[in-house]
Design brief:
This protein is α+β, with helices and mostly antiparallel strands. 39% of the residues lie in helices and 17% in strands. β5 and β6 form a beta hairpin.
């Protein structure tokens, strides 16, 4: 009787192992459970095993810590649906991230098992996969799928006034909230499509000139931003002038406009896709037996899970095999023996997430060590002032102030200053020629978007994270004797890589950073590019970076008279 009671207490304690390991979460654990764990040798042993798994991913020398963090965050979102019904609507925002090659999932999750069993979602994933979008485009598409049309600060009338500019791909005369509204509002999307269709019909009727532009090489990723401009910030687009050759062609080419209309139909069909008849539920199966995959026809053999599949009663036909089988190729990668010591829902979920991080594919990063230090240094920045110049102009094209401590985000261009006050949930826009200030209340989605910008790399780094750096990139220390470096504590590095343009031509990119040798924080950033026919790189953007304290940020706001 005593042994059975002891086992019962251990069973009750198992879901709290992860919380117990982290003291800040212990207040969530019932007091009798805490007392049992403290005195129970069996529970202590299980917790030590969990801590050992954690230590394998959190070491200070981990080369993939930043990527691991992204994987862990994504899987945490997946496993939030343990035991809950998962439908097509639930799955849709996860589809683009599943195509991110840097964030491969090595085990079945509540989201992937829905894809295993839902033909519609599997087909949508395959459709997105064929578009061959960039990582940034995939991230923005996930956010678009998750957004709601009812959450907008912009009226339909205001957004539709900008449609002629959007159809002409002149985003500089719009702003990010207008573009967002045009993407999430079904009515405005329809008007935008119809307006583009009118332009297309006019071109088809009048266009007789021979088209020498390589339209066949223009892919969906080239014009994706003009069809789904969700998340774009026209006021902070340093590459706009380099896309002018493409946009000037797109405006007058019926062939490419047809492609854009087809992409519009494809993307927003997925957005508006109704639910299928399939609902799945993913449960941790505590009594799962260890089985070799080949010994069972169960798709999830070898994993401590049970998947329930519910179909609408009126649907009797057997579900076809999905186009993409996520789980079959994973069975050999993770065995139940590795997860067996940690039972119960929360503990197993934590273990699965951690094992996925440990099993995460190794990415060569020998050339990215110094980059990692710079990325890490930027994470620690509290207040920053970034002044951007577009050569040959000597006047700044934009100034940006960010205070992570005060929750303040300020931009200034030649026409206006904008203050996002996250603490007070307001946005103030001041027209510099008239001094008129307009204040609007921020909705939650906009606040989340601004917070994401404030917690990111502040647009200083060439890629979202180190894992995005292409394998053809070179990282080199630059001799400073011929450079403008008045501070002897500054080291200069070049990151160079090659990209393919929409017309299949080669574009050479260079990102130069002037970094403090002690703190690793950037003092100046320069962006260059050249074509194969150029002898030298051409400077396209320069950023001067200044690090401020809270009082200096407050003084900036005071001087701006917001």
């Amino acid at each position: 009787m005593i042994a059975r009671n002891h086992e019962s207490l251990c069973s009750q304690a198992e879901p709290y192992y992860y919380d117990f390991l982290f003291n800040e979460s212990r207040e969530l654990i019932p007091e009798p459970v805490v007392n049992h764990i403290v005195q129970c040798q069996n529970c202590q042993q299980q917790i030590n095993q969990l801590e050992a798994v954690l230590s394998q991913t959190d070491g200070p020398e981990s080369k993939h810590k930043q990527v691991n963090s992204a994987v862990t965050t994504m899987l945490t979102l997946h496993f939030a649906y343990i035991g809950k019904p998962v439908t097509c609507k639930t799955t849709k925002p996860f589809l683009p991230s599943l195509l991110d090659t840097a964030l491969k999932i090595g085990i079945p999750t509540p989201i992937t098992v829905h894809l295993d069993n839902c033909r519609k979602c599997s087909e949508d994933l395959e459709t997105i996969h064929r578009l061959n979008l960039t990582r940034k485009q995939l991230r923005r598409l996930s956010q678009l799928f998750a957004d709601e049309p009812t959450r907008s600060n912009i009226s339909c009338a205001e957004a539709q006034n900008a449609i002629p500019l959007v159809v002409s791909m002149v985003f500089s005369e719009t702003d990010s909230e207008v573009l967002r509204h045009l993407c999430i509002c079904p009515d405005c999307r329809k008007v935008l499509y119809q307006r583009r269709e009118i332009v297309l019909r006019g071109l088809l009727k009048s266009n007789t000139a021979e088209n020498k532009f390589p339209c066949m090489n223009v892919s969906a990723r080239d014009f994706f931003d003009y069809v789904a401009p969700y998340g774009l910030d026209p006021a902070n687009d340093q590459y706009a002038k380099f896309r002018e050759s493409l946009t000037s062609h797109l405006r007058t080419c019926p062939t490419c406009l047809v492609k854009m209309q087809q992409l519009h139909e494809t993307m927003y069909r997925i957005v508006e896709q109704p639910e299928s008849e399939i609902t799945t539920a993913y449960h941790i199966n505590e009594s799962a037996k260890t089985r070799i995959a080949s010994e069972s026809d169960d798709l999830y053999a070898g994993f401590p899970i049970r998947v329930d599949i519910t179909r609408r009663e009126e649907v009797k036909a057997e579900q076809p095999v999905p186009a993409i089988d996520f789980t079959a190729t994973l069975k050999q990668k993770v065995s139940i023996e590795k997860l067996k010591p940690l039972l119960k829902t929360s503990a197993v979920a934590a273990a699965i997430i951690l094992m996925a991080v440990i099993l995460f594919q190794n990415i060569p990063t020998a050339k990215a060590v110094t980059l990692e230090r710079i990325y890490k240094a930027i994470e620690k920045v509290r207040n920053v002032h970034i002044t951007s110049f577009t050569p040959p102009n000597k006047e700044p094209t934009q100034e940006l102030w960010i205070s992570r401590t005060l929750n303040i985000y300020v931009t200034k261009t030649a026409k206006q200053s904008v203050l996002w006050d996250i603490a007070n949930k307001t946005r103030k826009t001041k027209q510099l020629d008239t001094g008129i200030i307009k204040t609007v209340r921020l909705i939650d989605d906009i606040i989340v978007d601004i917070k994401r910008k404030m917690s990111s790399t502040l647009d200083l780094m060439p890629f979202y994270d180190v894992s995005d750096v292409p394998e053809n990139a070179d990282w080199n220390l630059v001799a400073t004797k011929d450079l403008d470096t008045t501070n002897k504590g500054i080291e200069v590095y070049d990151l160079t890589w090659i990209e393919r343009a929409y017309d299949s031509s080669t574009v050479f990119k260079k990102w130069r950073v002037f970094a403090d040798s002690e703190t690793n924080i950037p003092q100046r950033i320069e962006w260059y590019e050249k074509s194969a026919s150029d002898a030298e790189y051409i400077l396209s953007l320069m950023m001067m970076v200044e690090y401020l304290n809270d009082n200096e940020i407050k003084e900036v706001i005071k001087e701006a008279s917001f």
